[in-house]
Specification:
Length: 851
C-alpha cells in the first residue's frame, strides 16, 4: 500500500507524540524520581497560567519554555473562572483549559495540573467562586459538608473533562501528576481537628478519582500515602518528603515576586535562582517547577488583594508580554543544559558528600559504569574561595555552585552569568484614530464621553442606619458601592466665616474610598484593612443648608489566602465630621442609602451593545481632571508586531477595556521614595522579596498589557473609566521592544560551554571564554554603544569604564559584530590586551544597538 506524503507526515507526528509524552504511559515513582514507561525522568517545569495570557500567546509561551530547557508545563485550574455560578461552567477564550493542555501535548511536553481547586496564587478570592461563600452553612477549607460537596463536585468535573479528552498520561495525554488543595499545611492547625480531617479527606477524595497518575499536595506535612507532599519556597534543598518512597519535588520556586499597587518593584537575581535550583538537584531533587516561568497579566478584576497589580510579571524568565527576560532566561537555559549532561548520574548514581572547607562541599554522583558528575558548592555568602577536588583546584565565587558533568571540567557556575542581557524599552505611539467610513476622514482622535453623577443612580438598593460590609453587599459583582447621606449645616457655623474647612474623618476595612460632597470630589483614601481599619482625614467643603455626602467605597481585589480568609470584609466602619460649633458629628449613626455599582456598568457601556449606547456624547475636547468619567475612542492598532502596553501614567485610577475585553484595573500609585531600593543587587545570601527592589518613588505599574490578538485591523473600541480625573489625551500605546543587547563575560567563565560539551572533551587549555550577542529577529547590530575589556563597571544600559581598560575594545567588537544579527567575541590575546592590569581577572562588557 502506498502512503501519501500527508499520511507519512501524520504517522511521523503520531510517533513523535508517542515518544515525547508517552502513549498510555505508566507513571510511577520511587525515592529518586518519577518513572515514566520504565524510564527515570529529571523534570524541569515551567509555570504558565492559561488565564493570565491569551490563547494566541499559548503556543509561543510553551515553545519558549521548551527552548529554555523545560520539559513540563504547570498550571493551576481556576475554579472561579470556570464555574461562574452553580453548574454554570465556562471553558472558552482564556479559560479554554482543554486547548491549553493540548498545546502542551503538541509541543511534546508533560503537564503538571494543579486542580486545587483552592489556588491562592494572588488570584481573586484564592480562585474560589465568591458565590460559594453565600451558600448557607459553608466554611471554606475545613471539614464542612457544603464546602466538601462543591469542592469534590468541581474537582470531579475537571477530572472527567480531562479523561474525556484523554489528557492524563495513563490515557496517552501529557498530564503526569495532579495536585489537590494548595499550601494547606500553613493553615491546618487554625481549623483544629476539622483541619486535619479535611486534609485527609481531600487526599482520599483525590485518590478515588483514579486518574492513573500520582497526586501531590504542596506544603502539606501530613499528606497520607500515596499522595506525595512537596515543597514551596525560595529554597528547597533541605526539604525531605514524608515518605522515604517519594521523590523530592519542588512545586514552587519563586524566581521573582508579585507587586501591589503603591509598592516597590521586586527582583530576584538570576545568580541566586540558579544557586537555589542547583542546590536542590545537588541534594537529590528530581522534579522542579518555576513559579512563575511566565507570570502574565491579571486581566479584568482577577487580581487578588488587596492591591495586587494588574501586572503579574513576577520578574519571571518570560516577561509579562511574552518576551524572554535576559539574562534570566538564558542563564537558566544553560543551567538546564548542564543538568541534562548530569542526568544519568543524578538519576542512577550513588551520592557521596565531601567537605571542601567550613562552608564548601562536593556532592559526587557515580555510577557502576564509571559515569561521574560533581557539584562543588560554596555556601559562604561573602567570600570567594579556591577549593581542591580530585587533585585539581577550582575557584568558587561566594554563594555559588559549579557543575562538573565528568567530575573534572566545569561547564557552569551559578554566579557566572555568560548569557546576554537586553535593553527593553516601552516605545510610545500616539493613539491613531480609525477611519470607520470612507466619507469620514478622521485626522484627530475623536472621543465619546459619559459622566456619572456621584451618588445614587436610579432606585437605591436599601437604606440603613450605619454601615454594612462592602463585600457581603456587592458579592464582588463590582468593585464599587455608593454609600450616601445628607447633613444640614446652620448658617452660623464658624467655619463658614473663617474659611477653615471641616474634616471628614473616615475609617474603613478597605480597600479604597472617594469622597464627594455636593457632587464635587473632596479627596480619596486607601489602605489594606486586612488586620486594622485604615483611617483618613479629608478636608471637605460644606455650605449652609443641606449637603449631600456621597462616598464611593471600593474593593481592589479580594483576599487570596489565610485561615478563614473568606470572612475578611471591606468597607466603611466609621465616619465623623470634625470642626463644627458643637464638636464632632458622628455620621455613623445616620441613615445611609446604598447603591451597588456604577450606572455605566449597569448599562454595559464598555462592551456589546453598550458601546453604541445613546449615553455616549461625542466631543472634540474630552474633559480633563473630571471624576467619574467614561471615555471611548475608536483607534487603529499600533504599528508593527511588538507586544503592546497601554500607558496610563497621566490617569488617576479606574478600569480599561479594548473591544469589550477587560484590560484590567489601572492605578499609577507611587511607592514611597523613602522605601529601601537598590542600585545594585548583591545576589549573595538568602533572598527575601524586599531585598532587591527598585522603583522607589515611582508608579508601581505604568503600562497595562493589551494582547495583540485583541486588536482588529481598525475600529478598535478603547474604553476607559476614570474615577478621580486624568488627562485622556495623554493616553498612549507603547510597544515593548528590545532596542539593544549586552554581554558581560569574564575570562574565568567556564571554558567549556554546555552546548559544545562532549564526553570526549579532555583538554580545555585552548578554549577561551566567548561573549555572544544576538539581536531580535529581523534586526542587526547597528552600533556599539559601549565596549570595554578590563574591569568595566555597571550593568546593561549603564556600563562605564573602570581603571583598567583596553582602548581598542570598541574597534575589535565593531569589526566582529557590526551589521550582523549575531556575533561571538573570544576573550583571547589575539583580540585584547591581557598584559595590562596584571593580577586582575578581566571582563569584557559590550552594549550593542539593534535596529
Amino acid at each position: 500500500m502506498k502512503l501519501s506524503l500527508m499520511s507519512i507526515h501524520c504517522l511521523f507526528l503520531a510517533l513523535f507524540m508517542k515518544l515525547a509524552v508517552g502513549y498510555g504511559s505508566n507513571v510511577s515513582y520511587d525515592s529518586r524520581s518519577f518513572i515514566i514507561d520504565g524510564q527515570r525522568k529529571l523534570l524541569i517545569s515551567a509555570a504558565v497560567h492559561y488565564p493570565r495570557s491569551v490563547p494566541a500567546m499559548w503556543p509561543g509561551l510553551v515553545q519558549l519554555a521548551k527552548e529554555g530547557g523545560a520539559n513540563v508545563i504547570e498550571s493551576y485550574v481556576f475554579w472561579n473562572g470556570h464555574e461562574l455560578s452553580p453548574d454554570n461552567y465556562y471553558f472558552e477564550g482564556r479559560y479554554d483549559l482543554v486547548k491549553f493542555v493540548k498545546i502542551v501535548q503538541q509541543a511534546g511536553m508533560y503537564m503538571m495540573l494543579r486542580i486545587g481547586p483552592f489556588v491562592a496564587a494572588e488570584w481573586n478570592f484564592g480562585g474560589v467562586p465568591v458565590w460559594l461563600h453565600y451558600v448557607p452553612g459553608t466554611v471554606f477549607r475545613t471539614d464542612n459538608e457544603p464546602w466538601k460537596y462543591y469542592m469534590e463536585k468541581f474537582t470531579t468535573y475537571i477530572v472527567k473533562l480531562m479523561k474525556k479528552e484523554k489528557l492524563f498520561a495513563s490515557q496517552g495525554g501529557p498530564i503526569i501528576m495532579a495536585q489537590i488543595e494548595n499550601e494547606y499545611g500553613y493553615y491546618e492547625q487554625s481549623y483544629g481537628d476539622g483541619g486535619k480531617r479535611y486534609a485527609m479527606w481531600a487526599a482520599k477524595m483525590a485518590v478515588s478519582q483514579k486518574i492513573g497518575v500520582p497526586w501531590i499536595m504542596c506544603q502539606q506535612w501530613d499528606a497520607p500515602d500515596p499522595v506525595i507532599n512537596t515543597c514551596n519556597g525560595f529554597y528547597c534543598d533541605d526539604f525531605t518528603p514524608i515518605s522515604s518512597n517519594s521523590p523530592k519535588i519542588w512545586t514552587e520556586n519563586w524566581p521573582g515576586w508579585f507587586k501591589t499597587f503603591g509598592s516597590m518593584d521586586p527582583h530576584r537575581p538570576v545568580e541566586d535562582v540558579a544557586y537555589a535550583v542547583t542546590r536542590f538537584f545537588e541534594n537529590g531533587g528530581s522534579v522542579h517547577n518555576y513559579y512563575m516561568y511566565h507570570g502574565g497579566t491579571n486581566f479584568g478584576r482577577t487580581a487578588g488583594g488587596p492591591f495586587i497589580t494588574t501586572s503579574y510579571d513576577y520578574d519571571a524568565p518570560i516577561d509579562e508580554y511574552g518576551l524572554p527576560r535576559f539574562p534570566k532566561w538564558g542563564h537558566l537555559k544553560e543551567l538546564h543544559g548542564a543538568f541534562k549532561l548530569c542526568e544519568n548520574a543524578l538519576l542512577f548514581g550513588e551520592r557521596t558528600n565531601l567537605s571542601l572547607g567550613p562552608l564548601q562541599e562536593a556532592s559526587v554522583y557515580t555510577e557502576s559504569t564509571g559515569v561521574c558528575a560533581a557539584f562543588l558548592a560554596n555556601m559562604d555568602n561573602k567570600t570567594d574561595t579556591v577549593v581542591k577536588f580530585r587533585n585539581m583546584t577550582y575557584h568558587l565565587p561566594a554563594w555559588s555552585v559549579s557543575i562538573l558533568p565528568d567530575c573534572k571540567n566545569v561547564v557552569y557556575n551559578t554566579a557566572k552569568v555568560g548569557s546576554q542581557a537586553s535593553v527593553v524599552d516601552m516605545v510610545p505611539e500616539d493613539l491613531r484614530p480609525s477611519v470607520v467610513s470612507p466619507k469620514k476622514d478622521l485626522k484627530a482622535l475623536q472621543w465619546e464621553v459619559f459622566v456619572e453623577k456621584p451618588g445614587i443612580w436610579e432606585k437605591p438598593e436599601f437604606s440603613k442606619t450605619g454601615f454594612v460590609d462592602h463585600i457581603n453587599t456587592t458579592k464582588d459583582t463590582t468593585d464599587y458601592l455608593w454609600v450616601t447621606t445628607s447633613l444640614y449645616v446652620d448658617g452660623d457655623e464658624m467655619f463658614l466665616k473663617k474659611g477653615i474647612p471641616p474634616i471628614l474623618s473616615v475609617k474603613s476595612k478597605g480597600h479604597a474610598l472617594h469622597v464627594f460632597v455636593n457632587q464635587e470630589l473632596q479627596g480619596s483614601a486607601s489602605g489594606n484593612g486586612t488586620i486594622f481599619p485604615f483611617a483618613s482625614e479629608i478636608p471637605i467643603s460644606l455650605k449652609a443648608g443641606k449637603n449631600e455626602i456621597a462616598l464611593l467605597s471600593m474593593t481592589v481585589g479580594l483576599q487570596t489566602a489565610g485561615p478563614q480568609y473568606e470572612w475578611i470584609g471591606a468597607g466603611l466602619t466609621s465616619v465623623e465630621i470634625k470642626g463644627l460649633n458643637n464638636g464632632n458629628v458622628n455620621l455613623s449613626k445616620f441613615t445611609w442609602t446604598y447603591k451597588i455599582g456604577l450606572l455605566g456598568e449597569h448599562l454595559n457601556i464598555y462592551k456589546g451593545d453598550g458601546l453604541k449606547s445613546k449615553n455616549w456624547v461625542l466631543t472634540t475636547e474630552p474633559p480633563k481632571r473630571k471624576p467619574l468619567t467614561w471615555y471611548k475612542a475608536l483607534v487603529d492598532p499600533p504599528s508593527g508586531n511588538e507586544p503592546v502596553g497601554l500607558d496610563m501614567i497621566h490617569m488617576g485610577k479606574g478600569l480599561a477595556w479594548l473591544n469589550g475585553e477587560e484590560i484590567g484595573r489601572y492605578w499609577p500609585r507611587k511607592s514611597s521614595k523613602h522605601d529601601a531600593c537598590v542600585d545594585h543587587c548583591d545576589y549573595r545570601g538568602k533572598f527575601s522579596p524586599n531585598k532587591c527592589s527598585t522603583g522607589c518613588g515611582e508608579p508601581t505599574q505604568r503600562w497595562y498589557h493589551v494582547p495583540r490578538s485583541w486588536f482588529k485591523s481598525s475600529g478598535n473600541e478603547l474604553v476607559i473609566f476614570e474615577e478621580t480625573g486624568g488627562d485622556p489625551t495623554q493616553i498612549r500605546f507603547s510597544k515593548r521592544k528590545t532596542s539593544g543587547v549586552c554581554s558581560l563575560m569574564s575570562e574565568d567563565h567556564p571554558s567549556i560551554s554546555v552546548e559544545s560539551w562532549t564526553t570526549a572533551t579532555k583538554d580545555t587549555n585552548d578554549k577561551k571564554a566567548t561573549a555572544q550577542l544576538r539581536c531580535p529577529s529581523n534586526t542587526r547590530v547597528s552600533a556599539i554603544k559601549f565596549a570595554s575589556f578590563g574591569n568595566p563597571m555597571g550593568a546593561c544600559g549603564s556600563y562605564s569604564h573602570g581603571d583598567c581598560h583596553d582602548p581598542e575594545s570598541a574597534s575589535v567588537v565593531e569589526k566582529m559584530c557590526l551589521n550582523r544579527s549575531e556575533c561571538s567575541i573570544e576573550l583571547s590575546k589575539e583580540n585584547f590586551n591581557f598584559g595590562s592590569c596584571p593580577g586582575k581577572i578581566k571582563r569584557l562588557a559590550v552594549e550593542a544597538v539593534c535596529s
